Amino acid sequence: MIDARDLTKRYGATLAVDRLSFSVRPGAVTGFLGPNGSGKSTTMRMIMGLDAPDGGQARIGGRPYQQARWPLREAGALLEARAFHPGRTGRGHLRALAAANAVPGSRVEEVLGMVGLESAADRRAGTYSLGMAQRLGIAAALIGDPGVLLFDEPVNGLDPEGVRWIRQLMRRLAAEGRTVFMSSHLISEMAQTADRLIVIGAGHLLADTTVAELSARAGGNLEDAFFALTADSAQYRAATAEGGF
Amino acid sequence: MTATTLQQTRAAERPGYRLRHAARMEWIKLRSLRSTTWILAAGVVVTIALGTVAGLNTSDPKSDVTSNVLSGVIFGQLLLGVLGVLVMSSEYSSGTIRATLAAIPRRPLVLTGKAVVFGTVALVAGEVATFGSFLAGTAALRSSVPRPSLSDPAVLRAVVMAGAYLALIALIGLGIGAIVRHSAPAVTTLVGGLFVLPLVIGAGSRTAGQFMPELIVGNSLAAVQPVEGFGLSPWLELGIVALYAVVLLGVGRALLVRRDA
Which pLDDT score, from 0 to 100, does residue B1 have? Predict the structure, then answer.
């Protein structure tokens, strides 16, 4: 369970996230949808305690992530494609994370198997393709067998096989009763993967609903519904850009 | 609320991970990078090699032979200091810091773990470098120059302190890495502070020289014979270098807590 209450983040004069409140429930894939620059990544970093909010609070399982007893067993996150040292092996990266939260070494082998990286585990991660890097990031997120998972643009740059693999993994993790929160700007991907949707624009909450309900607003077309919803925030951004940024 | 439930609530809020978990993570990280081993080995080899050359070139029998054969530390400190910077700055350049802080969200523990593990490794490497320099450098002396022994007064102290100095410079590098975060400007800051500042300030004032790490090691820590202008005891001088490390790590820790990762 993820709870965001009045989450606010300011960068200089720009309000990146503006009093954003929502809940992400377990047992479903919840899509996090919004135009580029709408504050999705910032929100995810605040949930994981990496960026400090200027207002409001995010909680995972009822408390801020920083207060978790064994953080990696509470939540795992894939926030960027390459969050590991290029000179370290995939296995070395995972072993270091496991040691930090007293996760047994056998779990490292388990997650390597889950993401299909066994044969590349002893290669330096800098030699990984984007798809392999993404798999290592997912293995790192799963290392503590957490109940809450965050994925920021997990299918970006992947080939169709990789996209399909991610989609099936998300569905399976949710079916196991986990909270799966996944951002993407690919609306068609969301339509296939997510059960619920949280849509934001310019840091504001625009919709907190199901995929079916949002599609129904535009006669069954999720893409049309999305553009209708975000039209205002997109126009706002275009206007400020013209204003000389 | 009864005393028992209050205790249970507190137990639930206390993090399960401790310094030993953070330290184990850092130990695995350090060992799993080939560059760490290479830079450490280069630091030790360069220090010993230059100490040996200094031994070969020592002709004045009255000179401070111990200090001469330990002079490779001046270059060895550069490699250990840069490694210290990289231990922190490479976390940022690679993005590993996000994974590290997700595992250990209590950020001071991350830096303490790094300081304990990397500081210990650097101390071992530093002592290997200075004892190796002393053994190789004195073995290379010509017969006209009296060979100092580790049992002579102040010689063992000089060798041990020069090794400890290398570990402190490594920690100073770690502190600068935590403050500056980007490798290139952090290394520039380190080199400026170690080598350029003494040239600018140390040359103008002998008193100020007693507070410059690079001059401290050559004229006090590694010296057996007293050097003019360095009246403070070697222990106090070592304390000054240690203070720099503590202050820089303290500032780095405060910034690590305050800044977004």
Answer: 44
Q: What is the pLDDT of residues A180-230, one digit of tens each?
A: 999 988 888 899 999 999 999 999 999 999 999 999 998 889 999 999 998
| Average pLDDT taken over every residue of chain A | 92
Check pLDDT > 50 for residue B28: yes
CB neighbourhood size of A26 (10 A): 16
Mutate to test the interface with A, among B25, B36, B97, B112 (most CBs of A within 10 A): B25
DSSP string, A90-109: HHHHHHHHHHHTT--HHHHH
Q: Which residue has the tokens 């390459």?
A: A82
pLDDT, one tens digit per residue, over A104-154 is 999 999 999 999 999 999 999 999 999 999 999 999 999 999 999 999 999
Strands A14-24 and A2-11: antiparallel
Phi, psi (5° rounding) for residue A23?
-125, 140
Which residues of B, range 123-162, sit inside 8 Å of A by Cβ?
A: none
CA–CA gap between residue B88 and residue A140 (Å, rounded) = 20
State how far the Cα of A103 lies from the Cα of A106, in Å rounded to an integer. 8
Q: Which two tokens stand for residue A222?
A: 């999720």
Quote the distance between the C-alpha of residue B166 and its chain's center.
4
- pLDDT higher at B60 or A238: B60
Which tokens sit at B234? 């070697």
**Contacting A residues, span 49-68, partner chain B, CB-CB under 8 Å:** 49-52, 63, 65-68
Q: Are B22 and B15 in contact (CB under 8 A)?
A: no
Q: Which of A42, A69, A94, A134 to mutate to test the interface with B (most CBs of B within 10 A)?
A: A69
Residue A56 to residue B82: CA distance in whole angstroms: 40
Please name the residues between 31 and 50 in chain A that touch chain B, using a CB distance below 8 Å.
Answer: 45, 48-50
Is B33 near chain A, with CB under 8 Å? yes
Whether the pLDDT of residue A239 is over 60: the answer is no
DSSP code for B95: S
Ramachandran quadrant class, A156 (left: phi over 0; alpha: psi -120 to 50; beta: rest):
beta
User: How far is it, in rounded angstroms, from Cα B189 to Cα A205?
Assistant: 44
- Give the pLDDT score at B111: 98
Measured from the Cβ of residue A32, the count of other Cβ atoms closer than 10 Å reads 28
**Cβ pair B261, B98 in contact under 8 A:** yes
Q: Does residue A80 sit in helix, strand or coil?
A: coil
Residue A117 is predicted with a pLDDT of 96
